[in-house]
Amino acid sequence: MTDDNTADTSPLAVSIPPLDTDAREAAIERQAELTKPPGSLGRLETLASDLAAIQSTTAPRVDPAVVVTMAADHGVVAEGVSAYPQSITTAMVRNFVDGGAAITALCAAGNVENVVVDMGVAGDVPSGVVEHRIAPGTNNMTNGPAMTDEQALAAVTAGRSVVRTHASDATLVGLGEMGIGNTTASAAITALLTDSTVDAVTGHGTGIDAETRNKKVETIERAIAINTPDSDDPIEVLRCVGGFEIGGLVGVTLEAASRRIPVVVDGVIAGAAALLAVSIAPRVADYLLGSHTSVEPGHDVQLNALGIEPLFDYDMRLGEGTGAALAVSTYRAACAAHTEMSTFEEAGL
User: Fold this and answer.
1) What is the dihedral of CA 42, 48, 54, 57, to 10 degrees?
2) Which pLDDT belongs to residue 2?
3) Backbone angles phi, psi at 264, to 5 degrees
4) Residue 218 catalytic?
5) How far is 254 from 313, CA to CA, in rounded Å?
6) In degrees rounded to 5, what are phi and psi of residue 177?
7) Which of 323, 175, 331 is closest to 257 using CA atoms?
8) 181: helix, strand or coil
9) According to the model, what pLDDT value does residue 349 have?
């Protein structure tokens, strides 16, 4: 895949602009003039110059910030790979809307808007959820492809639409998700796109025991063997072993990058979507920002493959976009220090 916009009718036709190196250099020069010893704010200075290059401005900012939380169900749950039943997906979407979830609490604490999207939840969702349901959950990937080509492309299209409709004014977008069984899909995607063994990238997800994790590994290996997806074709990988919410986050990432909006990657499911997006348009990698290091083993593999340096390690593994929401405050602080501090000349020093 390339970054060239060659087929305007395709959801994969996306033009990703190069980073603005002039804006980065101007940001670095300003950092040297601020009232502090050179380099004394450490990585905050690098983050500010990175954001300047992404946003093509000498005054980067992180407001408004949006976390998009996409929800969908997975047919592979029938294989007993999760500690929770599929119905929890619907219940948690209701919890998002009611304001009782971790992502809603963290977004409120960090002044971040949370956009919740139904990409394929098997149950009924309340009003307040953005409707882009592809189907009531994917097919069981151990019986054949998780979805059709048309559904995979529809998921990416929906994700791009969400940015255009609900985050077009955002200066930063975080990736979030909810879907019982989606760590199984993410591990499969990660193994295929990073040439890793399934065992190396499969964790305990919702808190399964060692025996269930072994079943999860076997289930993923069986799905890959049955479907034999071409790892050089990201849409085929999504079609065979992915999820609707993962496809939606691919679209969010592509559309945000095309608009010079930085994308904060959350945990292992968001990481799988980022891998797919970079496979479609390699320049997207320049627009990806880190948040936390998940305890899921596949996350380190993803971050290394994407060239992302995380901000913190708090032993988190919840998903929903919680790590991305928490990271917004750090990116906001980096921008504030960069734009609001005085230079030595301004301070008369």
Assistant:
1) -140
2) 43
3) -90, 120
4) no
5) 27
6) -160, 165
7) 175
8) coil
9) 87
Any idea which fold 65-331 has?
Rossmann fold (3.40.50)
Q: How many residues does the chain have?
A: 349
Instruction: Using the structure block, give the residue that is written with the tokens 């992502």.
Output: 103
Sequence spans of domains, the chain: 21-61+335-340, 65-331
One-letter amino acid at 169 equals D
User: Is the bond preceding residue 234 a cis peptide, omega within 30 degrees?
Assistant: no
* Contact predicate 349/35, CB 8 Å: yes
Q: Kindly state the tokens that stand for 129.
A: 């959820």
Low-confidence stretches of the chain (pLDDT beneath 50): 1-7
Distances (CA, A) of 298 to 61, 175, 231: 31, 17, 17
C-alpha–C-alpha distance, residues 308 and 104, integer Å = 25
Q: What is the pLDDT of residue 8?
A: 56
Q: What pTM does this model have?
A: 0.95
- The residue type of 25 is E
Neighbours of 65 (CB within 10 A): 27
Q: List the catalytic residue out of 309, 320, 340, 346.
A: 320
What are the tens digits of pLDDT across the range 291-321?
999 999 999 999 999 999 999 999 999 999 9
Q: Tokens 């999760």 sit at which residue?
A: 82
Name which of 289, 327, 281, 344 is nearest 12 in CA terms. Answer: 281
Q: What is the pLDDT of residue 206?
A: 83
Residue 143 corresponds to which tokens in the numbers above? 């019986």
Which residue type occupies 218? E
Tokens of 44: 């905050």
3-state helix, strand and coil shares in percent for the chain, rounded to the nearest 5: 50, 10, 40
